[in-house]
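Researcher: Quick test of sequence recovery. Tokens follow.
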């Protein structure tokens, strides 16, 4: 698949089907797209799965780990219970037993919460800046969109109260004016497509007016499905501001239909020029 040549090739990767639009509203996923507080969560989830996975003769841990990480990433954007259920189904297909999805989720969430608490404490104690846990260049991107008059939303598969709390901690909530949507406690009923449809209806928008940023296949697929312009943020889960695209994220986001792929927002001005054809 060819990539359009640009003066910032490698920072903004164009995919077939890209064209500038009359964009008035932008929806951002949160974790991995704006917030870096949960960075490393796929590996953490994989570490929780591996002890329960029945290895077969000839399989290596590295091979199994790659397969599990691919499946974990494919559910990025959905509430975590979906990945737990997929893993249990995978174990059962090997005629073995795993803990209940709810138990796996509790164990994973407990480990993740501890990490988030430690990172949040660094900000609260002024040992780190909020922007140390914002995806590189993300605040600049929000500033540029806000200056242009684009109406901003957050749409996350994380529990809504947690998203709001963490957006305040990172000094990001002020950009969204209360337009922060996350999953309810009964997260199995949550649908990003349904929320996107609600935004389109309530704002009286056509799909071509919608810009969507995400690091998971779910929001990218639904944004494109609804006629929006989708920007895939293949952010590095390991090193903040590395400028490298996560190769697994990139591949899955392209498969989901991304119009553009970026590693982060380090070239926000050039990205704005591309999006708004300036």
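Model:
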């Amino acid at each position: 698949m060819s990539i359009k040549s640009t003066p910032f090739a490698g920072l903004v990767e164009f995919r077939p089907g890209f064209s500038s639009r009359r964009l008035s509203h932008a929806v951002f996923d949160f974790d991995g797209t704006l917030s870096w507080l949960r960075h490393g969560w796929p590996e953490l989830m994989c570490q929780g799965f591996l002890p329960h996975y029945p290895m077969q003769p000839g399989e290596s841990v590295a091979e199994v780990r790659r397969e599990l990480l691919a499946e974990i990433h494919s559910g990025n954007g959905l509430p975590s219970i979906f990945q737990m259920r997929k893993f249990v189904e995978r174990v059962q297909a090997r005629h073995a037993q795993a803990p209940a999805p709810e138990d796996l989720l509790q164990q994973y969430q407990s480990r993740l919460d501890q990490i988030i608490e430690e990172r949040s404490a660094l900000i609260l104690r002024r040992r780190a800046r909020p922007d140390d846990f914002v995806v590189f260049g993300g605040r600049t991107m929000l500033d540029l969109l806000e200056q242009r008059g684009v109406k901003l939303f957050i749409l996350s598969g994380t529990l809504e109260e947690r998203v709001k709390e963490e957006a305040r901690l990172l000094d990001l909530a002020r950009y969204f004016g209360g337009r922060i949507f996350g999953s309810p406690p009964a997260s199995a009923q949550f649908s990003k497509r349904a929320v996107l449809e609600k935004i389109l209806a309530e704002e009286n928008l056509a799909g071509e007016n919608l810009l969507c940023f995400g690091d998971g296949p779910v929001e990218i697929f639904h944004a494109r499905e609804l006629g929006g312009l989708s920007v895939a943020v293949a952010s590095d889960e390991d090193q903040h501001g590395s400028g490298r695209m996560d190769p697994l994220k990139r591949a899955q986001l392209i498969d989901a239909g991304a119009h553009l792929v970026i590693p982060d927002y380090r070239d926000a001005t050039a990205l704005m020029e591309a999006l708004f054809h300036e």
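The chain is about 40% helix and 10% strand.
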